[in-house]
Amino acid sequence: MAWILFLILVAVILGIIGVAADGLLYLLVIGIAVFLVALVLGGSRLRNGRSLR
């Protein structure tokens, strides 16, 4: 669970930097990709019925 939360935090930070800094739009794209990976990992853990600990 901690890794998923960490990935979401990284995605948000990259997204904010990507939007705020001129010419760093690719960081926003990377942030979106990291966020999607975190969602897929979290969903797969919930689907398999594993504990989130």
Question: Which descriptors apply to this entry?
Answer:
single chain; 2 helices
Q: Structural class of the secondary elements?
A: mainly alpha
Q: Poorly predicted ranges (pLDDT <50, ≥5 residues)? A: none
Helical element count? 2
Distance between the termini: 6 Å
Largest sheet properties: none
Shape: elongated
What order do the SSEs take from the amino end to the carboxyl end, as H and E? HH
Return the average pLDDT rounded to an integer: 85
Query: How much helicity do the residues have?
Result: over 70%
- Amount of beta strand: under 5%
The counted number of beta strands is 0
Structure write-up:
This protein has 53 residues and is mainly α. 79% of the residues lie in helices and 0% in strands. It contains two helices and no strands. It has helices at residues 2-20, 25-47. The longest helix has 23 residues, at 25-47. The radius of gyration is 13 Å and the shape is elongated.
